[in-house]
Design goal:
The chain is α/β, with parallel strands linked by helices. The protein folds into two domains: 122 residues, Alpha-Beta Complex (Aspartate Aminotransferase, domain 1); 230 residues, Type I PLP-dependent aspartate aminotransferase-like (Major domain) (Aspartate Aminotransferase, domain 2). The chain has 14 helices and twelve strands. Helix 6 links the parallel strand 3 and strand 4. The longest helix is centred in the C-terminal third of the chain and has 21 residues. The chain is globular, with a radius of gyration of 20 Å. The two termini are 36 Å apart. The structure holds pyridoxal-5'-phosphate (PLP). Pyridoxal-5'-phosphate binds next to helix 5. The site of pyridoxal-5'-phosphate (PLP) has 13 residues, from helix 5.
């Protein structure tokens, strides 16, 4: 049975952000929640928690242990236990690291278009952003990065690996170049790898911390995206080998922000549901092919990306002044507006493909209805 095949009637009963932000007749393909039921190991772990009343304060070791084992088996990445520290979630974890490891007033480099909290939230606190725009293909522009790193004010870089919204999976060569440039210009790299386990079957994800020269960088990650567990707060800070001592000087509250259930259930998924995850990645890849085949029918194009379950689509052929807004108001289909990702991306929309093929077909039909 397909994982991405939940009835709309069931989905409409959900009370999460995706299903309640807009009216009941709007088809929501926006915020990065998946239309899946919990994976089998996660379900079993949840049932066991309830059977034995395991609802106390966090036992912190479950997720670090499970993640290190997953990273070793899946990516050949060795992570000693001391490198991993739980945190509340990825966005607040990035903010903690920026705050601890870059001076107030510093410039923080980001690659636009990018997931909105990199640009607008507290992630960079009292710092200012320096944009190194991606190439038109959605890849890192190493010349732009070098120019940004060379600025006197720049002290940090928030890398998104794989990149949201494009779904670009950065190559080992690109990441090595990042490490070299960061070292040359004394920039701390903080790599958000929350989508790392969500890559196409033929693609290989490379963690920033696996490339030479990354020893003074950090990863922030979580299994909440792969197993759709955003409701249960938990994430991980992972220190490069030169940062381990500094990691453990962070306040205890950083760890205490994670929830016992979040840590436990993410660990259950990573330990028990790797086949489920592989099937999910196959279904996401198929949904990308489906979208690429359907969009030309409404005048749009899309090339499947290797990472994430998100599609970044140029809606300018529709000839709408504000595509995302108009598609929602007239077409009753919700995508994320491009302006959330870059100031000049108003003609783009981000489409969440972690849903059933039926819903994707209906969403594209709704685009077509607006176009006519
Ligand atoms: C790149 C990226 N980072 C972070 C997050 C959010 O993570 P968290 O809920 O752990 O803060 C998302 C959610 O979509 C994301 O796409």
């Amino acid at each position: 049975m397909a994982i991405l095949d939940i009835d709309l009637d069931v989905l409409r009963q959900r009370t999460s952000m995706k299903w309640t932000r807009f009216g009941p007749d709007v088809l929501p393909l926006w915020v990065a929640e998946m239309d899946v039921l919990p994976s089998p190991g996660v379900t079993r772990a949840m049932q066991h928690v309830l059977e034995i009343g395991d609802l106390g304060y966090p036992g912190y070791e479950s997720l670090p242990r499970a993640f290190a084992s997953f990273a070793a088996d899946t990516w050949g990445l060795t992570l000693e236990a001391a490198k991993l520290m739980p945190c509340a979630d990825v966005v607040s974890g990035m903010a903690v690291l920026v705050d601890a490891f870059t001076p107030a007033g510093a410039g923080i480099v980001i690659n636009t278009p990018i997931y909105p909290p990199f640009r607008v939230s507290g992630a960079v606190g009292e710092r200012h952003l320096v944009e190194a725009v991606l190439t038109p293909e959605g890849r890192l522009d190493l010349d732009a990065l070098e120019a940004a790193f060379a600025r006197d004010d720049v002290a940090g870089y928030l890398l998104c690996n794989p990149h949201n919204p494009h779904g670009t999976v950065h190559t080992p060569e690109e990441l090595e170049s990042v490490a070299r440039l960061a070292h040359r210009h004394d920039v701390v790299v903080i790599s958000d790898e929350i989508h790392g386990a969500l890559v196409a079957p033929e693609a290989t994800f490379t963690s920033y911390l696996s490339v030479p020269g990354s020893e003074n960088g950090f990863v922030v990650t979580s299994a909440s995206k792969a197993f759709n567990l955003a409701a249960l707060k938990a994430g991980l800070l992972i220190a490069g080998s030169e940062r381990v001592a500094a990691l453990w000087k962070l306040p205890y509250e950083v760890r205490a922000g994670s929830s016992h259930l979040g840590l436990l259930l993410q660990a259950a998924g990573l330990d028990n549901d790797r086949d489920w995850l592989a099937q999910l990645n196959r279904e996401i890849a198929a949904n990308k092919v489906l979208l690429a085949s359907l969009l030309p029918g409404v005048g749009l194009t899309y090339t499947p990306s290797q990472g994430t379950y998100l599609a970044w689509v140029d809606a300018s052929p529709l000839g709408l002044e504000h595509p995302a807004t108009t598609l929602r108001s007239r077409g009753r289909v919700a995508f994320n507006p491009g302006t959330d990702y870059a100031g000049d991306a108003g003609q783009w929309v981000r489409i969440n493909l972690a849903t059933s093929p039926t819903i994707i077909c209906e969403a594209v039909a709704r685009i077509g209805a607006v176009r006519r």
